[in-house]
Amino acid sequence: MRRGADASRHRALSREAVIGLSLALAYLVFAAIFWAYPFFWLARLSVTQWRFFDEPVFTGGRNLLLTVQDPQFQQAMWNVLRFLAFYLPIAFGGALLVAFGLQHVGRGKTFVALCFLLSNVSSGVAVSLVFTKIFSSTGPLNAWLFGWIGVRVPWTTHPTLAMLAIALVVAWKFVGYYGLILYSGLLTIPREIYDAATLDHARPLTRLFRVTLPMINPQLMMVLVFAILVSFGLFTEPFLITGGGPADSTATPQMMIYETAFRRLQPSHAATMSILVSLASYLLVLAARRLFERKVVIA
Amino acid sequence: MIARRTLLTLGAGGLALLAGCGPRRTEKRTDRIRFWVAPNEAEEGFWKIAVARWNALGRGLPVDFTTIPTAGSSEDTVLSALVAGTEPDLCSNIFSGFAVQLAALGQVENLAAMPGYDALVARRNMGAILAGWTQNGQVSALPIYSSPTLLWWRADLLEKHGFSAPPRTYDEVYAFCDRYGVARQRYGMQVVSGRWWADRWFDFISFYYAASGGRPYLEGARALYDNAAGQQAAGFMDRMFRRGWTAMDFDAEEPLVSGLAAGAVRGPWDVERFARIYPDTLARIEVGPIVARAAGEGVGATFSDSKGLVIFKSSRVARPAFDFLAWVLGEEDLNLLWLQRTGLSPARGDLLQNPRFARYYRSNPIGRAYADHVVNAKPPALSEHTIDIQKIMTTKLVEPLMGGQLSPADALAEAVAQTNRMLAVQA
């Protein structure tokens, strides 16, 4: 009797699994075509020498050696960290302002939220072209600064300021989106916790650092992970605004990969770069989660 | 049962999708010539007429043309098509450096080996121009037009500051800038064209060619521009920045329109743009040569922005395609039509002597100035490492000069040394 029941449950589970599998199949096929196949092709390319039209020839670790010794690639990877140093404070500061601001909006909250999202969905190319003009040494921002305090800021021709300019443009694009993520976190914090904190005479800053920020840790982590991924995937803004200059100070790994594959016609070398970039981004995300992720339990 | 059927259906669909992603090279046709042309209205209009005439004449295989199906750069699209096997037989809009890359990859025909090549060169008077397109006796692309770079000046601003003609020497530019420039508000001339590697064609390389009389800046795997001409060109750029006679960039606006700068390097393609957007400014433009230390006798040298046509190795109709090419490039009527439609000077050495073109240039002084320089306009160095060479030129020479971090001599030495190291590694 017992064996019969087990067999019947097994058949039922199998049927459930088959249905689940068939539902997941579309995604699995998609992932196989657009993720697994390119990844394995990249892995194969990275240990070969191939120039688009010939047969790949196995070269072992040569591409890896060339890539890690390439000063331009090293500079591009360092530039990711430089970008993050500017981007994270701007993005988190801006996103928190958006989130707190939204809490105080009464009517038309959806409209305001939608407005913040507009910058996120606008074309990176169009945005970059507009900001190129704004940041120009002879552009409106500098004309205003010159009229006001008599200085022109070399936004795109000074290595540090150029990276700051890129970070500002990218932050403008993403701050609204990040703000909405943080706002969703703020909505989940029970009012009673703040009441209790107030009874304990907690000041606003104490409430921010002891209650609000710890309670929205999952949302903050999500924004942090997104920000890291954005920094490793950066292409359009530096490509159009600074061209990677001055002195390669805003060149990014994605720009290097594109130019190596399609301008220098060295796809094997570019494949190695792309694998290293994915590994670096994965490790950085992992490190960030280890360091900052906390479990939030609302009893 | 339902699940199994669903699985089978989804599996079949997935396999079909995978099969569709497999390599599938297009079977090359032998009854037509497939031709890609530059994706712009003016050139497309020309090819529409030229191809219709060829097809009506019935002198060879009919031609089917489309614009290069690109949303970005033509090079990326051509490359993708070559990898996918969907490239045409014939393609225009190829710059010489890309043609050399394609030749190094064995993807394009050597046009110098085609029957009828010598007759075409003679008929089109393009022997001198082709010197810059020939590498080891091989011609991978035939230039269809040659667009010299020249300096545009606002004639009204020159006159107002005591100049009756565009400056021809560095000293004349300095003298004008001294009178016209207002610190950090108004500049004599735009010196640096932009921050992209290709912008070097329109600043340092143009100045170098003008200073050296058109001597090459690269030979094989060796950069040559750390010489007297390089010193002069770099010295000029350095002085313009140190004295504040030019700005770091002019991205915010077209400087010639507002007079933010009174002079700038421009190509003939800008004539059509200005005629459309800034007709009033165009009426006040006077074209002068690229400045050098001393004004030489006759027409000075400058850079030529040229595009050419290639025939792909995979073509099964390479000979008929070359016949079409030779017909289009060799027919004076079509060369004139090209000039009228695009405003770009055909790459031929007799533009001002040949009466067929004289009438066009009589009524078009700016076009005439460009035509004057076609013979002395030099294309970029033929190298498959063009991008790296010019990126080094940007980061080690032009940017340090802009910021004043290095002297012209040190910047030149550093740029040349790094270029040579890069070329040695690539070799």
TrEMBL record, chain B:
Gene3D superfamilies: Periplasmic binding protein-like II. Belongs to the bacterial solute-binding protein 1 family. Signal peptide: none annotated. Transmembrane segments: none annotated. It is found in: Periplasm. This is Carbohydrate ABC transporter substrate-binding protein. Its main location: periplasm.
